[in-house]
Amino acid sequence: MRILLVEDNNTLANWLAKSLRQSQYTVDVVYDGTDAEHALAVTAYNLVILDLGLPDKGGLEVLRHLRRHGNEVPVIVLTANASLDGRVTGLDAGADDYLAKPFELSELEARIRAHLRRASQKTAPVITCGALSFDTNTRLFSVDGEPLALAPKEHAVLEQLLHKIGKTVNKTALSQSIYSFDSETDENAIEIYIHRLRKKLEGSKAEIVTLRGLGYLLRDGV
Question: Could you say which residues form the signal peptide (predicted)?
Fold first, then answer.
């Protein structure tokens, strides 16, 4: 899952990005509204964390621009303005959630998980396919109750497929979900990760199907 973090406080942004990456999220960080709008124009994100107090274009302007262009990505607003009017303004501008600074990381991560589940139309915290399970709270995969050991990019690819279970995901979308701005992108590497995942999922009845020219699809292979 790829997240855009828009926060002009470098210390907070870098700490938050590091924490989210440790939770197996792919995170891009930008520090002003102009870069945020550019990133959102060229990249498909699963969620945006948006500070309102940005140095050039304010967060509300970025949010309104995003919604005017039909982008429905979930947006969690961060702000030092915890007033009722401030919350109402943010929500009316198109925010999905609102978190006042200072905040607890555990609460932010819980809200991220909830919005990602809602966006993928999965309300239960555990998503299953055959004997494969993914606990969205712990962000751990298991097969028949046993932990499934995955490298970070294997985890990212499988999570993307599981959230789109039964639907085709093209190679570009998978690539965007696992590579951040500062990573060297290689769409051909997706084939390697798919091959490794198939071997690790053998016997689980969770099947990754290749649809030539279209992409990949995860399904219950019962």
Answer: none
Domain boundaries, the chain: 2-119, 126-220
pLDDT at residue 93, rounded to an integer: 83
Give the model confidence (pLDDT) of 121-138 as tens digits: 777 789 999 999 999 888
Query: What's the mean pLDDT when you consider all of the chain?
Result: 89
Please tell me the class of the 126-220 domain.
mainly alpha
Query: Domain 2-119 falls in which CATH fold?
Result: Rossmann fold (3.40.50)
Q: Which two tokens stand for residue 153?
A: 């990019």
CA–CA distance, 192 with 97 (Å, rounded to integer): 37
pLDDT tens, position by position, 96-115: 998 888 889 999 999 999 99
Q: From residue 112, give the alpha-carbon distance in Å to each of 12, 25, 116, 123, 161.
A: 17, 10, 6, 13, 18
